[in-house]
Amino acid sequence: MEKKNLRDILINYCRTYPKLQLRDVFKFLHQSSFGCEHMVASLDSAIDHICREAETMASVDRPLIEELAGDYSRVHLSWLKKGLSPETLGKLFYLSARTEEFGREALEEKLAVVREMVFLSEISFSAEEFDLAVTEWKEQGYPAIHHSEAFREAYHPAYRVIADEYIPFLPLFAKLDAMLAGGAVKLAIEGGSASGKSTLSALLEKLYDCTVFHMDDFFLQPHQRTPQRFAEAGGNVDRERFREEVLIPLSQGDEVSLKRFNCSTQTIEGPERIQPKKLTVIEGAYSMHPELAGYYDLSVFLDIDPAYQKTRILKRNTLEFAQRFFDEWIPLEQRYFEAFNIPASCSLSVEISPKKVDNRKDM
Predict the structure, then answer these.
(1) pLDDT tens-digit map of 70-106
(2) Which of 9, 90, 133, 289 stands 20 to 30 A from 327 (CA)?
(3) Is the backbone peptide bond immediately before 157 cis, with ω within 30 degrees of 0?
(4) Under a CB-based contact definition with an 8 Å cutoff, are residues 204 and 166 in contact?
(5) pLDDT tens for residues 3-39?
């Protein structure tokens, strides 16, 4: 935890909600340290509570996302008016509920910083009031607490605490939910190496029970790997076979006969019979090649910061294997992105940069 980050966020929080009480600060700190683990009994109950709360939600001008001083943020229920379904928000809330092994230590670190702020008059609570309240709260074991009545009456809080790792994708989820309400959707996930394409597709499987196809299953066969082919922008995947065997059947609502390319044996396996579901996800670089792009209803580009990309690749691979990314695969991807202006051709773009979730520490 960085003191400056907590100070800045908390000072802004107090300015945004000038009528807040000390217990509202404690709630802020508890959520920053423990997230929402104490609030989720079951997935069904989480969704039901969101639906019921949304029905009586007051119309207030509040940020859609409020950053907490940890690995979580508050997501306002107004997202439901932007297309996000109660089911998706409930699932994100449920997935965010995890045991924070070092939550108490993190909370006490934050309380020490806030005590400094109180004594320096950076926030308007008396030192005596603060120390007394902290002592009482500690004796109780730092339980989760509700907002004060003054806060509720003034600001009508209506939010869920969601893990920061899911926050960048809220616009995508909202768009998906709105489109799925009208029928089946085919989504392409584009982006460079280590941008999180497979991680996002795995999350979508949890949220939507969708079918996922991977471009990595369609590498070129040995006889296709000619200088002429590699000279093409985006020529290093078998887009023709992918179009014929996957996208055309999907566009016709037919079963897909999936034949994966096995990199170890350099042969094509299968077939595996796959029935399309309401949501179909195609993840991988080159999925938005102009010969394929017209088959999708929605597309998202994961725009990873180059320095962060390098850090991720080095963390996941040996130095020798990582060098192949830097010397071979990333230059090929960049040439393809630039040749066809892939980021601009996608429906949505999500910035992938270092997040608080990557800076968790064992305390």
Answers:
(1) 999 999 999 999 999 999 999 999 999 887 889 999 9
(2) 289
(3) no
(4) no
(5) 558 999 999 999 999 999 999 999 999 999 999 866 6
How many residues does the structure list for the chain?
Answer: 363
CA 179 remoteness from chain centre? 19
Residue written as token pair 């993840």: 283
The dihedrals phi and psi of 197, each to the nearest 5 degrees, come to -65, -50
What separation, in Å, do the N-terminal and C-terminal C-alpha atoms of the chain show?
10
Q: What does the alpha-carbon distance between residue 342 and residue 232 come to, in Å, rounded to a whole number?
A: 15
User: Distance between CA 286 and CA 189 in Å, rounded?
Assistant: 10
Burial environment of residue 87 by CB neighbours within 10 A (0 to 12, 13 to 18, 19 or more): middle
On whether the CB atoms of residues 70 and 32 are closer than 8 A, the answer is yes
pLDDT, tens digit (0-9, with 9 covering 90-100), for 314-360: 999 999 999 999 999 999 999 999 999 999 999 999 999 885 334 33
pLDDT at 188 over 50: yes
Enter the pTM of the model: 0.91
Scan for tokens 């990314």, then name that residue. Answer: 325
Is the bond preceding 86 in cis, omega lying within 30 degrees of 0?
A: no
Q: What per-residue confidence (pLDDT) applies to 200?
A: 97
CB of 279 closer than 8 Å to CB of 176 = yes
DSSP H helix total and E strand total for the chain: 16, 12
Counting beta carbons within 10 angstroms of the beta carbon of residue 209, is it exposed (0 to 12), middle (13 to 18) or buried (19 or more)?
Answer: exposed
Q: Which helix (H) or strand (E) holds 179?
A: helix 170-180
Give yes or no for a contact between 220 and 229, defined as CB atoms under 8 angstroms apart: yes
Q: For residue 352, what are the β-bridge partners?
A: 304
Strand extents, DSSP E, 45-137? 65-67, 72-76
Task: Express the helix, strand and coil content of the chain in percent, nearest 5 each.
Answer: 55, 15, 35
Query: Is the confidence at residue 362, as pLDDT, over 90?
Result: no
| C-alpha to C-alpha distance for 181 and 163, rounded to whole angstroms | 25
What's phi and psi for 206, nearest 5 deg? -70, -35
Which pair of structure tokens corresponds to residue 311? Answer: 């850090």
Count Cβ atoms below 10 Å from residue 32 Cβ, excluding itself: 24
| CA atoms within a 13 Å half-sphere pointing along the CA-CB vector of 325 | 19
